[in-house]
Specification:
Distance between the termini: 71 Å
Strand order of the largest sheet: 1-3-2-4-6-5-10-11-9-7-8
GO molecular function, one term: catalytic activity
Number of strands: 11
InterPro entries: Amidase (IPR000120), Amidase_dom (IPR023631), AS_sf (IPR036928)
Organism: Penicillium cosmopolitanum
Structural class: alpha/beta
CATH superfamily: Amidase signature (AS) domain
Protein name: Amidase domain-containing protein
CATH architecture: Alpha-Beta Complex
Domain Amidase: 52-506
CATH class: Alpha Beta
Number of helices: 14
Shape: globular
Number of domains: 1
Radius of gyration: 22 Å
Order of helices and strands: HEEHEHEHEEHHEHEHHHHEHHEEH
Amino acid sequence: MRRIQNDDDYIHPALFPVETTTARKYWEPESKDNPLNAWKHRCELIARTPSSKILQNRTIAIKDNISVGGLPTTVGTFKELLCEEDGSLPLSTIDAAVVSRILEAGATIKGSSNCENYCASPLSFSAANGPVHNAWKYGYTSGGSSSGSASLVAANIVQREQGGSFGEIVDLAIGGDQAGSVRIPASYSGIYGLKPTYGLVPYTGAVSLAPMIDHLGPLANNLEDIALLLQVMAGYDGIDPRMTPESPLRSQVQDYPRLLSQFRDRKLEQGEDFGSGLTIGLLAESFEIQGLSEEVRDTVRQSAREFFTAAGAKVVDISIPHHRDGSLIWTAATRMSMSEWVFQGKTSGLLSFLPSHIHPRWPPDQRMYELTTATNPAAVNVMLSGPFLQEHFGPQVEAKAHRKVFELRAAYDQAFMQVDILVTPCAPTVAMPHPTMQVNEDGSYSSVMDKLSAAVGVTTNTASFNVTGHPALSVPCGFGQDSDASEVKLPIGMQLVGRRWEDATVVKAAAVFEEGRKRICIDGG
C-alpha cells in the first residue's frame, strides 16, 4: 500500500484533456455576472482540432461533479473541505468521458455549473456558495442537484419572454441524476431534462453517489437539442463498469437527431395520424403520491390526455402497485452504502477509474459536520445513516433491496407490454421559495427539519427509474401559480418513461405531445 501510495499516478489515455485553442484556465465569476448563482467556475474551452462540427458554436455548462481538465471539481461543497495544504483547490488532470466527447464535437464549454452540496438535494438552496435561483422567479428553487445547469438553460426562455439579463447563459447543459437530479430541475425550470437508460452514457470522470444509480444526462430548451447532446454523449467508453453488454459501441449509437427529424417529417399513410400506434399509459399510482399538489396532478393528467389524443395517440390508465414502493426500494438499496461512495470515495469493487483530484475528507470532523448541517442536513443524513444502518441491519437487507429492484423493474417491464410510454408527474409541486439560510433580523431562521422537510417526497416519482434503469424525460406541460404571488407563473413538468434502451421512443413520444399541444393551441386560438 505504501508503494502504491508513493508511486506515480496513471492517467488513462482516453481521459487526457482534449487540446484546446487556448491554455486551460478558470475564474470565479463576480456576483454581478452571476445573478442566478448558477455558475461555479467559468472558463472558455474549445477543442483545437474537433473531430466533428455537430456542436459547433453551441455553448454548454458542465455540472460541478464532472471532471473538466484544468478546473476544480467541488461537488457543491466548501473549499475548506477540499483544499490542499497550501490552500489551493486541486485541479482535474482529466476530461470526463462526456467532456471529451462534447469538446470533440465542437462545443464551447463555458464553465462548471453550481450543484447542491455533495449532490444530495432535489432542491437548490444547499450549495456552499449560496442558493441557486430559478430563472422564472428569484429566490425560488430551480431544483437539484443539477441546479445551476437548469437555471442557465432556462434563462434563455425567460430572457426571451420577459426580458432582463442573466449574465452569461448557455444553450445546453449536462447534469447528473441519481434520484431525479436532471429531471426535477428541468421540471421546476420549464425545460427538457433526460435521464438516459442506465449504461447508455458513460459516467467515467464524475463523482459517484452510488454506482447502481449514477446517470449523466442532457438539459435543453427543445427536443432537438436533447437528441443531439444524447448522441454526442452516448456509447461504450471501455472504462465505466456501469456499462453493460447492451451498451452500444460509439459507432453503433443511434442517430437520435435524425430519428427525431424523420419521425417529425415522415409522410403519413391514409388514415394514419402523427401519434398513431403509440399507447400512452397514465400511471395511476404516480398521481396519488403524498405531497402532490392538485394543480400539478390535474395539469399533467389533463395535458397528457388532451395533447396525446389530439395527435392521434391512444391514452389509457394503467396501474402498477409496485410504484408505491419505488422510492422506498431506492432508499433501502442505496442509502447504507451511499456515504462510502460520495463521502469516502470508495471504488465500486469493479475495475473503475476514479478522478485522482477528488480527495474526500474522511472521517468527518466537527467542522465538516457544522458546515454541512448548516447548508444541507440531508447530506449529513447520508453520511451518518451508513454506519447507523450497518449497525442495525447489516448488508443482508441492502442485498434484499437489490433483489427487490429486479422485482420493481419486472413490474414496469410488464406494464410496457401494454403501453409504450408511462406518464407521471415529475416534481410534485411548482417551485417553492428557498428556506431562510441565515438568521433574520427578528432572529428567525430555517431549522434542520425545515430544510429536510422541504425536500421530502420531491423525488417520489423519479427515483424508481434510477434503480430500474428505464429512460425518463421531463417535458414542460404547463404552468402553475406561486402560492405567495398568484400572478407569477411557474413551470410544471411531466415525466415520460420508456422501455430500457428505447430512449428514442421517449423522445418521439415527447414530439407527439408537442404536436398535440400545437394542434390544441391552433384550434383553440
